[in-house]
Write a sequence for this structure.
């Protein structure tokens, strides 16, 4: 992280814990194993800024100033997204080089779609208001899913991170 700090310091990043960061039963983990004692999460929770009210479940939510700004999601692929969503949406793609593992049989309302294959996401920012996300499978590079996120940022263009209003036009 030190190596990329000069480049990414002004950008707000949201970090997501994996099976080594939060895997001890009863600690808020989605993983039902005791692979580690959860001690790997201590580094992630202390190295990256996390609002005080969310330090125990740092991947779950934040009400920081510039989060929740997306107001429109346009989608034309096989699955139907309806937007704007009324909740924060996370797209998790990839296994960090790990082997494929089956999903849990538990199906929740908040987990919209799962794909059992190797793949990656390509993000294309067309301008300050339009972002295209494309999910491609590693075996052929074909786009299997995509959506465009658009936002009119007129309400925050004049503010710095520490001077933005807590609400925006999308609130």
């Amino acid at each position: 992280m030190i190596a990329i700090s000069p480049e990414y310091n002004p950008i707000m990043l949201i970090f997501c814990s994996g099976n080594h960061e939060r895997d001890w039963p009863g600690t808020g983990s989605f993983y039902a194993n005791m692979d580690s004692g959860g001690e790997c999460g201590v580094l992630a929770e202390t190295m990256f800024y996390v609002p005080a009210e969310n330090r125990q479940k740092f991947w779950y939510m934040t009400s920081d100033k510039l989060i929740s700004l997306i107001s429109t999601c346009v989608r034309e692929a096989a699955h139907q997204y309806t937007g704007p969503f009324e909740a924060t949406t996370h797209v998790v793609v990839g296994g960090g080089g790990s082997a494929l593992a089956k999903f849990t049989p538990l199906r929740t309302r908040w987990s919209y779609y799962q794909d059992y294959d190797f793949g990656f996401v390509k993000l294309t920012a067309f301008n300050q208001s339009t972002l295209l996300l494309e999910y491609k499978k590693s075996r052929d590079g074909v786009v299997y899913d995509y959506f465009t996120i658009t936002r009119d940022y007129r309400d925050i263009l004049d503010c710095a991170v520490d001077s933005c209003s807590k609400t925006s036009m999308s609130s």
